[in-house]
């Protein structure tokens, strides 16, 4: 439908990085799931690792590795900066919306959540996010027009991570289904 805006060689290299990124994010998120506990519940670990089993905390543990991998890609592949940042941020938001939508949809239908489905869905949504990112950056001719919005969205998101790690709203997205607590409390 749209032409390849990066060129064949660069697109192939980028596709390979995106596939590696999906694996990296999945492994890193798995580690971050337990890091807070392994650290002895250190406050510094709460900013990027899961402090409980809430949906928000699971969204958080996938987002940091996603952004870290984006920096790796940015350093290793010469992709136009505005195009890259816009595509990555919009893809990050896709992931952050897809995770709770899928979780609440399937658990609402079944009346419960299933841990194996939760884990697999995190990995599948991550893979889809990287596919979306690739398509946006390589083929979407308009994506760089969203650069300023993307910068605003990433700043807002990381501000909310810091804020909500310590003062989460009392809504289900932040509620630990195991303990009934919110955030670090």
How would you briefly describe this protein structure?
This protein has one domain. It is 71% helix and 0% strand. The chain has helices at residues 8-38, 43-46, 55-76, 81-110, 115-139, 147-166.
Description:
It is a single chain. With 185 residues, the chain is mainly α. The chain has one domain. 71% of the residues lie in helices and 0% in strands. It is built from six helices and no strands. It has helices spanning 8-38, 43-46, 55-76, 81-110, 115-139, 147-166. Helix 1 (8-38) crosses helix 3, helix 1 runs antiparallel to helix 5 and helix 3 packs antiparallel against helix 4. The protein starts with 7 loop residues before the first helix and ends in a 19-residue tail after the last helix. The relative contact order is 0.16.
SSE sequence, one letter per element = HHHHHH
Query: Helicity range of the residues?
Result: over 70%
Number of domains: 1
Give the number of helices. Answer: 6
Largest sheet features: none
- What would you report as the Rg, rounded to the nearest angstrom? 17 Å
Contiguous low-pLDDT stretches (5 residues minimum) are: none
